[in-house]
Design brief:
Blueprint (H helix, E strand, L loop, with lengths): L2 H17 L2 H15 L4 H10 L5 E6 L5 H12 L2 E4 H9 L7 H7 L6 H17 L4 E4 L5 H9 L6 E6 L2 H18 L6 H25 L4 E5 L10 H10 L12 E5 L6 H12 L2 E4 H10 L5 H9 L6 H12 L2 H6 L1 E4 L5 H8 L9 E5 L3 H10 E3 L6 E3 L3 H4 L3 H6 L8 H20 L5 E4 L5 H12 L8
Parallel strand pairs: 1-3, 1-4, 2-3, 4-5, 6-8, 6-9, 7-8, 9-12
Antiparallel strand pairs: 10-11
Helix pairs in contact: 4-11, 8-10, 9-10, 12-22, 13-14
Length: 470
């Protein structure tokens, strides 16, 4: 078998393992063997393989992340049973005396005795396992003891998710909850007392969370819900993607990582946004990252703004840092991404080749339009200084503009004359280098295709289908 045959064979095996989820299956079986230690491993494995696998999802979060509502909506969308531990505890607590320590801790959003909590939850989980029902457990585990309980019963999570938000939002949520809990019991706490109790509660949560993550090292995926406030898709989409496309170090395939390289005056932003919305992945536009840094008005802002004003490439120490930070964010790590506005130089192409596997593109798209086509687009391109959006005359977006919007449109200096020629030359250099490099995951367009043709081809090529679609 020669080298090419070996590579083809390896690729076919990887595809088979991915399609049939072999890695995940073997990993789960070995985990269960280690935990349960059956006397006859072969009989155990045969019995286990005959059963439909139970999916175990555990979601907890900082106060203020609304785990209950989110978890229930997610369970309904996936067809899983939802086990809301907080609701179960509240039902039990309501029958206790006010002087009971567990009830007092519940009212003050403090941790409740582990034995009390585990006894409430144990029967629910055993019932799900016996009935072979996939389930989502909310607000559990929340400390090391609770994590150890799961391990001791062999209930290892398929996904353990931690929702995070700012300390300020958490404190406000705890204050409201404490106030409401005391009012229900016809007891009054003043604002200062509530503030003290809220800070104690959150500090306790942080301490227990650290111990939990140490105990469940490698299982927990943290998601900062504040990152999704301005997104076109909600947190249910994010969690659904995370569960369906579980990210683990030994996975043969990651969520979509798309690099879209397009010439000047091409509507790459629109293509990126549509693909982002269709696949529920992050749209990472390098120019947006730079503009965000300019708005921060820090020590980097002046240098970046200076380069942009001169229509020069921004220093790589800024571009590569901002890009890498974004690609390692929870949004990109979980959902995948499409990058536009990059690369602009050979050094940046080298960076792509040397990216670590977890952030490496699995599809590179090059729209290699000729100079005539670029100039044609430049002549039709108009810019709205009020909104910062660009339009191509004759496009659907342009036809929808009102009189006020049309009156504001103008051509930018960078889309004309010597500056445009310089941009075209820079792009041609990048395209030439890309074409000469041995990128196995490269697809090319010549610029004559419609935007819709490009979009559909990319989506079809990436083959990003959900667990239910495959």
């Amino acid at each position: 078998m020669d080298r090419v045959q070996k590579l083809d064979y390896q690729k076919s095996m990887e595809e088979y393992f991915h399609t049939h989820k072999v890695n995940e299956l073997l990993e789960n079986l070995f985990e269960e063997l280690i935990v349960n230690k059956p006397k006859n491993p072969i009989d155990y494995l045969i019995s286990r393989l005959k059963r439909k696998p139970v999916k175990r999802i555990f979601i907890t979060g900082n106060p203020g992340t609304d785990v209950g509502t989110t978890g229930l909506a997610l369970a309904n969308s996936l067809g899983y049973k939802c086990v809301d531990l907080s609701q179960l505890i509240e039902n039990e607590i309501s029958n206790l005396e006010k002087t009971n320590n567990n009830k007092k801790n519940f009212m003050e959003c403090r941790y409740i005795d582990d034995e009390f909590v585990i006894n409430i939850l144990r029967n629910e989980l055993i019932k799900c396992e016996e009935e072979n029902i996939s389930y989502i457990v909310l607000d559990f585990p929340r400390n090391r003891t609770q994590a150890i309980f799961l391990k001791s019963y062999g209930l290892l999570p398929d996904n353990a998710i931690l929702l995070k938000t700012s300390r300020e939002k958490s404190l406000e949520s705890i204050k409201d909850k404490i106030k409401n809990n005391y009012e229900k019991e016809e007891m009054i706490k003043n604002d200062e007392e509530i503030n003290i109790l809220a800070n104690i509660s959150l500090d306790e949560f942080d301490i227990n969370l650290k111990a939990l993550k140490d105990s469940f090292n490698g299982f927990y995926q943290e998601i900062n819900i504040d990152e999704y406030e301005d997104k076109d898709y909600d947190i249910i989409d994010i969690l659904s993607n995370l569960i369906k496309f579980k990210i683990r170090a030994n996975e043969t395939r990651n969520p979509p990582h798309i690099l879209l390289i397009a010439p000047p005056c091409y509507n790459k932003g629109k293509i990126g946004k549509i693909i982002s919305n269709r696949l529920k992945i992050a749209h990472v536009d390098v120019m947006d990252l730079l503009k965000k840094e300019i708005e921060a008005k820090n020590e980097n802002s002046k240098n970046i703004l200076e380069a942009l004003d001169k229509n020069e490439n921004v220093d790589n120490k800024y571009v590569l840092k901002f890009l890498e930070d974004k690609l390692y964010s929870s949004d990109c790590s979980i959902n995948g991404w499409i990058i536009t506005g990059f690369p602009k130089s050979e050094l940046q192409i080298n960076y792509i080749e040397n990216m670590k596997s977890q952030i490496k593109p699995n599809l590179i798209v090059l729209i290699d339009a000729d100079e005539r086509k670029i100039e044609e687009n430049a002549n039709k391109k108009r810019y709205d200084p009020l909104t910062g959006k660009s339009y191509i005359e004759g496009s659907e977006e342009y036809a929808k503009l009102g009189e006020d919007e049309l009156s504001r449109l103008a051509k930018r200096k960078q889309d004309e004359g010597e500056i445009l020629m310089k941009r075209i030359e820079s792009f041609k250099n990048v395209a030439d280098i890309i074409n000469k490099r041995d990128f196995k995951n490269l697809i090319k367009f010549n610029g004559s295709e419609s935007e819709n043709q490009i979009i559909e081809t990319i989506i079809d090529k990436i083959g990003f289908k959900s667990e239910n679609e495959s």
